[in-house]
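Hello again,

I reread your note about wanting to compare the complex against the isolated chains. To keep things tidy I'm splitting this into two emails, and this first one only covers the full assembly. Below are the input lines as submitted, including protein chains and any nucleic acid or small-molecule components. They are followed by the predicted structure of everything together. The single-chain runs will come separately.
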Amino acid sequence: MPRQNQIGVPAFRNISLKIYKNMILGKIIRLQHGVSGQWYNIDKERSSVFTNSSNYVEGAGNGRGQAFYGQLKSWSAEATLLIASASDIATLFSLLGAEASPWRFVCGETAYSGKAYLSSFSLEANKRSLVIIRIVLIGTGKLNESEI
Amino acid sequence: MIIGDSVFIKIGGKIVALQKTCKLSASVEMVEVTPLPNSEEDDGWTHYERGETSWEASSDNFVSVGEGSYMPLVGDVAEIEFNFGKISLSGKAFVAKAKLTAQYKSHATVSLSLVGEDFLKLA
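Full-complex prediction:
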């Protein structure tokens, strides 16, 4: 049966987010990320894309598609940043149109890393308040977990 | 840290009068390119490529009728500029929406929504 699977990440403390090696974007005041799994059904049409259709029909016997199930995982992250300097804006802007870049999330003794696109940034400037930027990262490929 | 007082939205080279807040959002469309299941490239994870980029801006302002004040009209195509000291982001945008609120015994305000018409550039 198709179903959804959610892997929760515990509350973060001592979070830091690094892009490339040493560059830290402003000060993170909130960061969330999660990995979600999705079950998909490979139907006859989709199967025929990667198997020979005539063999497929013979294998299935009755000509009807055979169902397969698998788990497809994805990850994303959202962070709220206080911008330290105008150059942070330039960094974010350059990342918006760039290829996926490596990101690292540190949570206590565990680090998560993977390649992600900067999917969006949203800047808010309220008079007499600090400028806040919200960013959304969409992971592409595997999210690795490692001990620090 | 950057304080909001120093960030302004300019339209047509002029600062929109009496701004309270301004916002800028830019996003990239994500196109899913996950390899087919059981293929050589399949690693069980979703893969993406970047697609089209778009941006929009908005600002809340007090209404000014003084000399030199400037308020764009809906439908205007305007040059927008966000200033952050030495750095600025600018581009051409449509004024998509202007909402005027005039409450009794209170300051009149206007909210502007702008949609980017071409690319946003960094200067």
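For quick reference: Chain A touches chain B through 50 residues (CB under 8 Å).

B.
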